[in-house]
Amino acid sequence: MLLYQSLKLSDKKTDDERALLYMGKSFTHSALFKNIDDAATRLARIVSAGDVVTICMPNTPECVYCFYAVNRLGGIVHMVHPLAPLNQLKKFMDAAKSKLLITLSINLEKYAPLAAEYPIVSVHPARSLNGILRFAFDMKVKPYKGDMTNITDYDSLKLCALPEEPARDGATTGVYLHSGGTGGEPKIIELSDESVIALSDRGLEALCTDRAHGMYMLAALPMFHGFGLAMCIHTTLAYGGVSVLMPKFDPKSTVKLLKKNKMHFIIGVPNLFRALLKQKGFNGKALKNLYVGFVGGDCAPQDLLDEFNGRLEKVGATARLFEGYGLTETVTVCAVNNFAHNRRGSMGYMLSDLEAIVVDPDGTTPLAAGEKGEIAIAGNTLMNGYLANPQTNERVFFEYGGKKYVRTGDFGYMDADGYLYFIQRLKRIIKISGISVYPKEIETSALEISGVTGACAVEYKDNGKTRIALFLTGAEQDKQAVKRKISNDLSHYAEPTIVEVIDAIPVTPVMKADTIALSNLAQQMCSQTRRSE
User: Fold this and answer.
1) 207, 205, 204, 197: which is closest to 230 by C-alpha?
2) pLDDT tens by residue, 293-306
3) Cα-based distances in Å from 413 to 372, 376, 435
4) Residue 66 contacts residue 157 (beta carbons within 8 Å)
5) Structurally, how many domains does the chain consist of?
6) DSSP string, 41-90
């Protein structure tokens, strides 16, 4: 079954109920499917079943329409970060064997050179808004005036009759998403229609509710992010909720929507929730409108969870912010804390019919409760594999007990009660004199220091020896005091040799800490110090 078909079958809305909310304008259930079918009629002359179409857009109504339209035509949707550099986008499109690029008109200055190899469909960012807002947008952002060869405006695409819906096997790949690339070269992850549907079938369980009809979900996580696609868009729409589309997260707008009782579910990365806490309006009785929040995409410091939930408790709100665990290789979320069962420091319980075991990184036999190793996941949300990467696929998949598991590359353990704990990315474990050091523990220790708002520990080489650099955000710190605290909290092996306060922790396209960039920065700092000696 196609994602388009599953959405039509499962959607619980009547024609005049809201499905999308975008910059103050709402779009009904009937308008949603009318616009999806309209997009399909525009693209049908270009896209056939099996074609790969790259969509490089933030969360706008047209991004939703084009995603489902390509799926409706039997194509494979290749979602890419809308801020991807030109060379990176070309590399991604070449690897995916893409046939077409769909992007915003404001990106043409950057992406127009790709028209020499790929046809481009250009979408106006304010297309779905009224004429006044579109005029205001054009006054602020001047339209592209360059060569339009092989570039077509979305509204200039010729309409044609819709072909019959293809009978695609649900196990066939329908979506390409990119891995975070935090541990090396990013990979293209193949997800089937049925794997995304399987996660959405558990959507209400993941959201700790028995209904989502008429409830509003913040859709600030972009659709190139598995959680943004599967939970903020597909699950929300399938269960009759309203996806509140934000091309870029706006904490002020989020607070305004909370006050209007139009924001019930919030899913995001840690920085999103920190930004909300900084808003003066994020307080008072408006917080009682929030039902639940989930933080993922990167480890959430315990102080963030405590501060956020403390704010909610103080005003008598019943909502809570919970941490969960997932990865794009399993369409993201597979374990969550929730109202019924949560344990401090854990990632929560596995969702129904998904299983986790912990194995030795080179083995397949489950370790006992409490023993640390690599987390592996089984269930029907598993990816089909990494595109054109048979060697890696052979390494990450294995069978145990008649079930297929995928290695997550994450180091952790499960306790005797079935709670899952994440410690560290395996590739981020640092060996100092043969001793394993866990950057997450260093970061946790650093975040306990007054004035520290962010922390990321990475390794670098100094004359061939492995060293640790700790990058912090927030107030300036006594670097020696930071080193002493970490040494006392952990061990002298964990003590960083570089401690540096920076403006912001850089992030990858999927908003995880960019450890590679920080390792390179540490290496540069080390080299500069050596030259000055």
Assistant:
1) 197
2) 999 876 788 889 99
3) 5, 10, 19
4) no
5) 2
6) HHHTTT--TT-EEEEE--S-HHHHHHHHHHHHTTPEEEE--TT--HHHHH
pLDDT tens-digit series, residues 245-288: 999 999 999 999 999 999 999 999 888 999 999 999 999 999 99
Identify the CATH number of the domain in which residue 450 sits.
3.30.300.30
Q: Looking at the DSSP assignment, which residues form a beta bridge with residue 420?
A: 348, 414
Q: Name the β-bridge partners of 375.
A: 358
CATH code for the domain in which residue 130 is found: 3.40.50.980
221 located within any domain: no
Within a domain: 485: yes
Residue 436 belongs to domain spanning: 429-532
| Residue ranges with strand state E in 99-153 | 100-104, 120-123, 151-153
Question: Of 113, 108, 112, which Cα lies nearest the Cα of 141?
Answer: 108
Pairing of strands 120-123, 151-153: parallel
Q: Which two tokens stand for residue 282?
A: 């994020």
Tokens coding 223: 């659709």
Helix runs in 315-418, H state only: 390-396
Residue with tokens 């190793």: 373
Cβ(218)–Cβ(268) under 8 Å?
A: yes
Domain membership flag for residue 145? yes
Long-range residue pairs from 204-207, CB within 8 A, at least 24 positions apart, any chain? 204/239, 205/351, 205/352, 206/231, 206/235, 206/294, 206/324, 206/333, 206/336, 206/351, 207/231, 207/235, 207/265, 207/292, 207/294
On whether residue 199 sits in a domain, the answer given is no
**Structure tokens of 186?**
């990013």
